[in-house]
Amino acid sequence: MAQRSLTAWFTLPGLRDKAPPTPAEAASFDALLPKLGYLSKAEVKRVREAYKFADEAHLGQKRATGEPYITHPIAVAGICAEWRLDAQALMAALMHDVVEDCGISKAELIEKFDATTADLVDGLTKLDKLQFSTKEESQAESFRKMLLAMARDLRVILVKLADRLHNMRTMGAMAPHKARRIARETFDIYAPIAHRLGLNQTFRELEDLSFRYFHPWRYTALSKAVAKARGNRRDLVSRIEGEIRTAFTKAGLRVQVQGREKTVYSIYKKMREKGLMSFAQVSDIFGFRILTEEPLQCYTALGVLHQLYKPQAGRFKDYIANQKDNGYQSLHTTLMGPLATPLEFQLRTEGMHQIAEQGVAAHWIYKSRGGKQASALIAQQANARWLQSLIDIQDETRDANEFLEHVKIDLFPDSIYVFTPKSKIMALPKGATPVDFAYAIHSDVGDHCVAAQVNGEAVPLRAALRSGDIVEIITAPGASPNPAWLSFVRTGRARSKIRHYLKDLEQEESRELGEKMLAQAMRTEGLGLPSLELDAPEAPLWHALADWAGSASTEQLLVDIGAGRKIAAIIAKKLARLMAEQGQRPDALALTLGRFTEGPVDDRASVTIDGSEGASVQLATCCRPIPGDEVRGYLGRGEGLVVHTCECAVGKRLFQRDSEHWIRVEWAEELSRGFEVGVSLLLTNGKGVLAQVAQAVAQAEADITHIAMGDEAPALEEVEMNLLIAVRDRLHLADVLRVLRRTPAVQRVSRTKP
């Protein structure tokens, strides 16, 4: 393998100076033809037909630069050709805007070309023709469609990235505010996707171009500083190059030596991370890449470099043994060069380099060359799980904004590598927890996770994992996801699975509550609730009721009632009329009891609370009801059932304003947990006063769940303290208050009331 000099080592890939084509050349198929040498004559003919179709469709359209619009599809197809994508992908690249901008239908594309090409174009088409409530929702839905199409066919995202790359390269003629918006979108979504798929060359360029348009002044200033530093350090670079060549020649190792310069954005990011105030403080703006023939030679070359320059402690990473999730493999090390200059080195084989720069696109490059290297498929296989996870998340998350949120979570550039007890390695985003690990194994493991051990020791479920950890998950059959997990999980898969479970649970609770409430309302009509069995004679009755109410099904109707989106009394009156049409008449005695019992409903129809209720039943935080209090429930619109004490001032105001939404609530005889209640104390300030209060509460067999004091409390002779205490019922609260009153430091204590 011949050694190469460092010619033009400081240019950013994709931005090298080229003679610009004439407008006529750029708008013709001749601009694309030289790049299609890897295709057969028949395939080139099909691509030419797609060009003619796109050219006719875009006839008369201009870009913001004033060029014919067809120059853009040709340039996008050219980028795809550099990746050696197949003829269908190139055809889709040429026609990617014909549906959106020219009114061409998918059916026309199928008829003119083929179904696969039409599917690719459809996956690339925005959803501008649909109506959305906000621009953000439209954008989220567009990304959702694109990412799901990508999961089915990876060529969709490759063409889309090529499209965005050319748009970013030619954005100079665009209005600044629009350029900033597109740059932010590129930085947040497209650049991370390129990185996630291993297209590092495209990732770096998209990041740099986004920075250029989002922070133009900073980009210009840094670009000038980098150009100046480049000239000043040319002699140093030549010296380092000579020393590296000499060292490898003496070792008898044939390698390629390439120089690389940090992009403007990566320099800016490093300055912000390290708090550097000026570019002059940045010492490591350039590095070197060593390409070997075999993986083992990477380690040999590493030894040669470590003999030449002193390595910096803690700055070595082995991504060959532990490849990144996107297929990236390389050795990274930082050495102290001449004049105490930090030098970053990357060591990899040519195959690894191809995958490092082109990611999943390397699959098509090797395929077009007829190569059989297994490394050509690494990036393709490494991303298969992530792509499948998009479909899994979609199955559980129909909301476009939520789907996009989950995907963004998974677009982390850094990964950690942990092991199962059976030594299977798993890649997770940095900061991942045992819960993320559990869901990465299987959704059932995550759903029933109760504890975790890392390297043989018990750890909290929110603990951050580190590379090399051996993680074991402990499960229990009756366990279920905790809503608090959403505050610390880091993977989109874990977040979507937890939310999906909680939504299902909330739906079931709302359905049960809705059935109870409708049964209560039907009693006031003197009727019983018809059978809800699917094969019961009353099934057509329920279908008619759901249609009238605008619900998708009977189940959804009951859920809507339980969640407060529909009023049980109104639904009951309609159901009574439908039943009357079938000859069913109300029972006179039941009707009398239902209408003349004091309160909204009779005692037999009240909702019972034992503390095991989920999100569909909430205890109001204004009055914090506990067993023994007289309570009633307010059915807020979309909030489920909120329980207030009958003495609650907030509840009284709501009752006066909206009495129809109130139902009777009662406490169960057996309770499943303690209930929080607010307690206010006036204390004589002094040493150990908090300990006295805590000891008194513990003596009464209660638990303090929250303490609040004023910021100036330490300086005052008397202080007010507010506690949240978990008690069993009103009798237990009375015991707690009695013990607190006997405490020497307590002057006054009472239950907090709104």
Uncertain spans, ≥5 residues at pLDDT below 50? 1-18, 127-134, 368-379, 595-605
Q: Could you tell me the radius of gyration in angstroms?
A: 34 Å
Ends apart, CA distance between termini? 81 Å
Quote the beta fraction: 5-15%
Helix content estimate: 40-55%
Average pLDDT: 78
The coarse silhouette is globular
| Helical/strand content category | alpha+beta
Family: Belongs to the relA/spoT family.
Keywords: Transferase
Protein name: RelA/SpoT family protein
Domain HD: 69-168
Descriptive notes:
The protein is an alpha+beta fold. 48% of the residues lie in helices and 15% in strands. The chain has 30 helices and 20 strands. Strands 1, 2, 3, 4, 5 and 6 form a six-stranded mixed β-sheet that branches. It has a five-stranded mixed β-sheet with strand order 12-16-14-15-13, with helices on both faces. Strands 18-19-17-20 form a four-stranded antiparallel β-sheet, covered by helices on one side. A hairpin with a 3-residue loop joins strand 14 and strand 15. The chain starts with 22 loop residues before the first helix and ends with a strand. The relative contact order is 0.05.
